[in-house]
Design brief:
The chain is α+β, with helices and mostly antiparallel strands. The protein has helices at 3-12, 36-48, 133-136, 149-156, 195-209, 212-216; strands at 15-18, 21-24, 57-64, 74-83, 87-96, 99-109, 160-164, 180-187, 229-239, 249-259, 262-271, 276-287. The chain contains six helices and twelve strands. A hairpin with a 2-residue loop joins strand 10 (249-259) and strand 11. The termini are far apart.
Amino acid sequence: MSTALDSLLDLLDLEQIEQDIFRGSSRSALVPRVFGGQVAAQALVAAGRTVPADRPAHSLHSYFLRMGDPGAPIVYTVDRIRDGRSFTTRRVVAVQHGQPIFHLSASFQTYEDGLEHQADMPAAPDPETLPTAAEMLPRYADRFSGPGVVDRLTEARAAVDLRYVDAPPFGTVGEPREPRSQVWFRTNGKLADDPLLHVCMATYVSDMTLLDSVLLAHGRGGWAVGDVVGASLDHAMWFHRPFRADEWLLYDQESPSASGGRGLGQARIYTQDGRLAITVIQEGVVRVPR
């Protein structure tokens, strides 16, 4: 297991300070604020720790309310909304400096048999044939908006092996193309068998690249290039089938719309053997600096 993955696992291992109240540390990402995927994953950890282990998460819906301060702890308060015979519902509010910065609702369900069908997995190359982030990012060093961006990008993603199928937005600045992006990802090391951990890790990664497809449609390179200003607004996920975040997952992303200073991304995440594991939808602020 990599040192970076150990650090991320520590970040997700929240401290319980009272019944249904947890505290997490935070760290900065590429910009001087808390990475949204971190807050979402930590909130799901908090919710999951109040739910029986035989009820895995099947969905989450969340809103990013304020920019998180990476220099301060985050307190997560869990409301036990409902404990039914099959479903459990939790609401989590993340607070910093006395103000809510994030709100999440999550639902958990006992295992059941039922009808089965799924959308087919799209074609994608073998992830082992694609360059790693450490191999790819230096190729685009001249595209980024300031010194040290390659190092910070590499460090921010060191816990995860994330491989782009096609050139990322910062690799095709000024060249609009179909608003679709694919990446393969898995953690840089094996994880414990706890299903909640794998769901929370996928939640963390899901916020890294989902709005890339919005940028591709307009030939914009993104926040690392400096030609747009962006932030996540809301994030929803549905967990359809069991998966492991330490095994290859294909993140197939597209953007059906951008308007009003906002962009919408939607995606499906498949296991390498073709099972549809997760559906994701996110809207974010996408503004062009004047």
